[in-house]
Amino acid sequence: MIHLTAADAIRLGLHPTTSRLPRRHALKPDWRPGFLVQLAALGVFKEFGEPRVEHRFHARRAWKLDVAWPAPLFLAVEIEGGTWIRGRHVQGSGFSEDARKYAEAMLLGWRVLRVTPAQIARGDAALYTAQILARIRTGEWLPPQIDLAGHPKRPRVRRAAAITGVSRRGTRR
């Protein structure tokens, strides 16, 4: 069981008297408070700091990330609501606009984790987030090596003939 003091609940925006959400979200279910409580229970705040909620990441567009850890971590968690009720995120124009937003975020260096409310309810989203943050911190989450043309570098594999001395035809070299 998670125990928060009233001061912590107010600071996280979980207390009924405070809200970090604009009025347009007043009637929609909000999964961020539960997600933040799960992250706090896993000790993510102590190790990586508090995330920003509704973080504006783009200089010219009014795009916001649901939950974000800015520099140096650059991790964003986007909660995709309405997946089973044909919400905005799964309909044509909304899906297209979200894809554009995520592409722009990635071009700016953000890592974007997309989760559903069901993953938050099960606690999976908080575990994924904690694991990704730990990999970023330890350096295990590194970008792939690319060549000058922008293609991923593949490790060189020596041909079997070079190793064994036998060609495909079965003759010795």
Overview of the molecule:
The protein has seven helices and four strands. The protein has a four-stranded mixed beta sheet, with helices on both faces. The N and C termini lie far apart (69 Å). Helix 2 crosses helix 6 (124-138). The protein has a single domain, classed as Endonuclease, Chain A. Mean pLDDT is 76; it is low at 15-28. It has helices at residues 6-11, 32-41, 44-48, 92-107, 117-122, 124-138, 160-164; strands at residues 52-56, 64-69, 75-79, 111-115. It is α+β, with helices and mostly antiparallel strands.
Give a brief outline of the structure:
The chain is of the alpha+beta class and 173 residues long. 36% of the residues lie in helices and 12% in strands.
List its salient traits.
36% helix; 4 strands; alpha+beta; 173 residues; 7 helices; globular; single chain; Endonuclease, Chain A
What's the SSE blueprint?
Elements: H1 6-11, H2 32-41, H3 44-48, E1 52-56, E2 64-69, E3 75-79, H4 92-107, E4 111-115, H5 117-122, H6 124-138, H7 160-164
Parallel strand pairs: 3-4
Antiparallel strand pairs: 1-2, 2-3
Order of helices and strands: HHHEEEHEHHH
Quantity of strands, as a count: 4
Query: What is the 3D form?
Result: globular
Main sheet?
A: 4 strands, mixed
Look at the helices and sheets and give the structural class: alpha+beta
CATH architecture descriptor: 3-Layer(aba) Sandwich
Low-pLDDT segments, ≥5 res? 15-28
CATH topology annotation? Endonuclease, Chain A
**What do we call the CATH homologous superfamily?**
VSR Endonuclease
